[in-house]
Amino acid sequence: MRASLDASQPCWLLFVALVWLTLAYPVAGRADTVTDSVAAVEPTCRAVADRIYTLKEQGGAERQSSALLRETLAGMGFTVTGDLPVPADLVSGGVSKTAFKAEMAGNGPGPTVVIMLEYDALANGHSCGHNLISGSGLVAAAALAKLMPGLPGRLVVMGTPDEERGSAGGGKVALLEGGHFDGADAVLITHPADRWSLDQRLLSMKRATFTFHGKASHAAAAPEKGVNALNAVELTFHCADMLRQHLRQDVRLHGIVTTGGDKVNVVPELAQAEFAVRALDTATMDAAYARLGDCARAGALGTGASLEFVVPRVALTSPVVVPPLIEATRRGLLAAGVEAGQLKDWTEFVSSDLGRVGDAYPTVNVWFKIAPEGTALHSDAMREAAGSPEGWKAAVMAGTAVALTAYEMFTHPQEVEAVKQAFAAARAKAAGSPTP
Ligand SMILES: [Zn+2]
C-alpha cells in the first residue's frame, strides 16, 4: 500500500489532501474555537461553582447562588431578568425569586438554544452536585458568549431552582407554565454522576397523599365505638404491596406514613400516608397511579374510615427522546475528550422536573462522571466528588460538549430542523400509543 502513496501520483495526493481539508478542518476548527473560548473563561466559572458549593442553599432558598450567577452572566454581557412571574399555586406570591433568565442575541435571526442551570443543595450539602451543573453550564454559556457576535440566533441561560422538590412544581414546571421557555429550539443541561452517559430515560412521577378520617375512642375501654384510621393506612399499604407483584418491572411504588395516631390508648381518628408512583413512561405511571387510588379506597371501605384524596395538579413526565440532538451531543462529548467506550447506559432511574422540559421542547441531558461507578447520587461520597478537582475537570468537559453542541445548532440550521422533526415525530407517536 505504501508504494501507492509515492510522488508518482501527485493528482491523487492532491485530491486526498483536499478531501481531508474539506471534511476535517471545519470540525477541528470548530472544536478549537470553542475550546479556546472555554480555556479563557474556565477559572471564573470554577470560582462561581466553588462558591455555590460552599453556600449549599436548599430548594427555594438559593438566593445567594442565584444572585452570584446573575451577576456573573450580566458581567459577561447577558441581559439578565430575575423575579420571574410563575403560577401562584406553584410558587407563593407568583414570583420565582431564585429563578432567572439570561439572554444574548447573536448577529441575526437563527435558533434559540437554552442552557439550564441548577444550583439547589440537599440537607447534606451538594450531594447531587448541582454546583457543577451551574459550573458546567456557565462554562458553556461563557464560552459561547465570546462567539455570539459571529453567530446567528439567541442564547438563553435559564436559572432553574428547586429541582430536588421538582414534583412540587416550584422549579422548571413553574417556569414552563410561566412561558419562560417559549421559543426554545433546543434545551441543554448536564448532571454529575458516577458515569458518562447520554441515556435520556427518566421516570414519570406523581405523588399521592391519602388522608383517612376515622373516629376516636378509648382503645381499651370502648374500641367498638372507634373507627381506626391507621388501619385504613395499613390496608392501603398491604394492598399496594400486593399490587406491586403485578406491575411492570420499571414501576416504582413507595410510601411513608406521615400521621398514624397520637396516643396508644386512643383509636386513631386521623391517619395519613404519602406515596410516589413512577414508571418509565407516563401512561404506565398513570395506570399504576389509578390502581393505587383503588388500594386507598379499599383501605377506607375495609375499615369504615373516610378517604380524602386530591390528585395533585403537577406530575413529572419522562422526556421525549430526540436522536439527532443526542447524536450532536455525542459528537460534542467526543470532541471534548470523552472516549466513545466511556459512554454507558443509565440503569438506576430517577425522576426530575427536567422530564417536563423534555416533554415540551427538544432537550438533552449529559450525565458526566465525577465519582467511581456505583457512587450514589445524594450520598456523602458524591458530595465530596462534587467539590473535588476531578469533579471540576469533568464539569469542564461536559460544559465544552454543551458549548460544541450549541455551536453546531447555531451554525447548522439543518441540524435544528432535524431535531425539531424528530421531536415532533416522537411526541406524536407517544400521544398515539394506547394506555397499557
Ligand atoms: Zn440532581
From TrEMBL:
Residues 206-293 form the Peptidase M20 dimerisation domain. Pfam families: M20_dimer, Peptidase_M20. InterPro entries: Bact_exopeptidase_dim_dom, Peptidase_M20, Peptidase_M20/M20A_hydrolases, Peptidase_M20_dimer, Xaa-Arg_dipeptidase. One of its GO terms (biological process) is folic acid catabolic process. The keyword Protease applies. GO terms for cellular component: cytoplasm. It comes from the Bacteria. GO terms for molecular function: carboxypeptidase activity; dipeptidase activity; para-aminobenzoyl-glutamate hydrolase activity. Keywords: Carboxypeptidase, Hydrolase, Protease. Belongs to the peptidase M20A family. This is Peptidase M20 domain-containing protein 2. It comes from Solidesulfovibrio magneticus str. Maddingley MBC34.
